[in-house]
Write a structure and sequence with these properties.
This protein has 449 residues and is of the alpha+beta class. It has eleven helices and 27 strands. The strands form ten sheets. Strands 13-21-20-14 form a four-stranded antiparallel sheet. Helix 3 packs antiparallel against helix 4, helix 6 packs across helix 7 and helix 9 packs across helix 11. The chain is elongated and about 160 Å long. This is VanW family protein.
Length: 449
């Protein structure tokens, strides 16, 4: 009530002076109620006297449409990627600002409105630049997929002594954060700049293994082979699959090898077949039978290269194809043959079968051949027991062997190192135990008539 009294007094005072008729003041304010007051600017455009739609169209034509024509070009090697402002929905808050301009002064009293309409005071409103950053990330994703290249290690191939090395290839990685930062830094609403060019930063990724490192693999340093002359077709098939899986393995100094990881699970889908396997004190048919000959042959090749096993176990029974204490059994998910390249140079494992023999060769630096190695075994025999079962229905002296007895063994394996023909070291490699198989015999006790 007090405010209305003050306004009324002010108006009466002005009118009593005969300066401006009240009706004129009121009519002037009323005439500008739906348009923007004079001397109101949005950026550099005078929108005074314009209705909302007129002002919006005027600002949109200069600032909205021109903005959508801008673009940023991104150079990645020989490729150019374009980020259009239309894709990022670049825009000014034109509607919001025009609404502010239209509302300017409309809340004042009659005299205040009149002064703004008739006055020469300039009022400016600024536009805010906005955009959607999601398309930027999507473009960078696409650039990254096309620009990024994994490094490729140098590769070595050896076939019966013929050594070939293909050089390494550098990898490329887009420096994503730097590119995004450069894009965001250059996105703006300046109409004087139609576009910007950015050169993406790329990081060169060097491969872990280069040709120079592999060049030190220049000579065989150990070899070993075993025969499977009497093996079945299924067993030969399994030996061939496992040998091929290992052939070509390269181990850098400090890298480890796992037979199970290299060969993989022995399944029918992967081509493995049923063949004889040792289970306890007997031989049964099992999927992948025969691959222990592969692991045992590789184990001896490894020993002759002056490498120790990290994990290795002997069979429960001695084997015909290899000496006692020199075998290495494997079983998927249970028993493995593992070793680490403890040499100062990389090694290459070559494996192949020929004339019903499985061969393994380890290649490395020729400097390692100045030493040679010999495996020596110390064997103690453990005699089995024989259980006799008397049979009164059979004649005295008649015997039937129901379970054959085989001796057990305690075996120590030593590796002797020679240099220049002289023994320079002897070390214990393994201490194995082969369980004796106790026999059973049925014997007759019936007296002859």
């Amino acid at each position: 009530m007090k405010k209305k009294i003050i306004i009324g007094v002010t108006i009466c005072a002005v009118l009593s002076m005969g300066i401006i008729p009240a009706s004129y003041v009121y009519a002037t304010g009323n005439n500008w109620s739906n348009v923007i007051y004079p001397e109101v600017y949005i950026e550099d455009i005078n929108v005074g006297g314009k209705q909302f739609g007129e002002a919006e169209e005027l600002i949109q034509k200069k600032y909205g449409e021109s903005l959508l024509n801008k673009k940023i070009q991104i150079e990645v090697n020989d490729n150019i990627y374009t980020l259009d402002y239309s894709k990022i929905e670049a825009r000014y808050n034109i509607g919001e600002v025009v609404n502010k301009a239209l509302s300017y002064g409309k809340q004042g009293n009659m005299i205040q409105k009149y002064k703004l309409i008739k006055g020469e005071e300039k009022k400016e409103f600024k536009l805010n630049f906005e955009y959607n950053s999601t398309p930027i990330d999507e473009l960078i994703d696409r650039i990254e997929q096309q620009a990024n290249k994994d490094p490729q290690n140098a590769k070595i191939f050896i076939t019966k002594g013929d050594i070939k090395i293909t050089p390494e290839i550098d990898g490329v990685k887009l420096q994503r954060n730097k590119l995004k930062g450069a894009i965001l830094e250059n996105i703006n609403g300046e109409l004087s700049k139609e576009g910007t060019k950015i050169k993406a930063s790329l990081e060169i990724i060097k491969p872990e293994i280069n040709k120079e490192k592999l060049a030190s693999i220049n000579s065989p340093i150990s070899s070993f082979s075993t025969s499977f002359f009497t093996s079945s077709a299924n067993r030969i098939n399994n030996i061939d699959l496992a040998t091929k899986a290992i052939n070509g393995t390269v181990l850098m100094p400090g890298e480890s090898f796992s037979f199970n990881e290299a060969v993989g699970e022995r399944t029918r889908v992967r081509g493995y077949k049923e063949a004889g396997v040792i289970i306890g004190d007997r031989i049964e048919s099992g999927l992948g039978g025969g691959i222990c000959q592969v692991s045992s042959t590789l184990y001896n090749t490894m020993l002759n290269a002056n490498i120790k096993a990290d994990e290795r176990r002997n069979h429960s029974l001695p084997l015909a194809y290899i000496g006692k204490g020199l075998d290495a059994t494997v079983d998927w998910g249970n028993i493995d043959l593992k070793f680490t390249n403890t040499l100062n140079t990389p090694i290459y494992i070559e494996g192949y079968i020929e004339n019903k023999n499985v061969y393994f060769n380890i290649y490395s630096s020729k400097t390692l051949t100045k030493r040679t190695y010999e495996m020596v075994t110390d064997i103690s025999t453990i005699q089995p027991t024989i259980k006799y079962i008397d049979d009164a229905t059979r004649l005295e002296g008649e015997k039937i062997v129901t379970k054959s007895a085989t001796s057990g063994y305690k075996v120590k394996v030593y590796r002797k190192t020679f240099e220049g023909g002289k023994l320079i070291n002897t070390e214990l490699i393994s201490n194995d135990y082969y369980t004796p198989v106790n026999g059973e015999v049925i014997r007759g006790i019936k007296k002859p008539l």
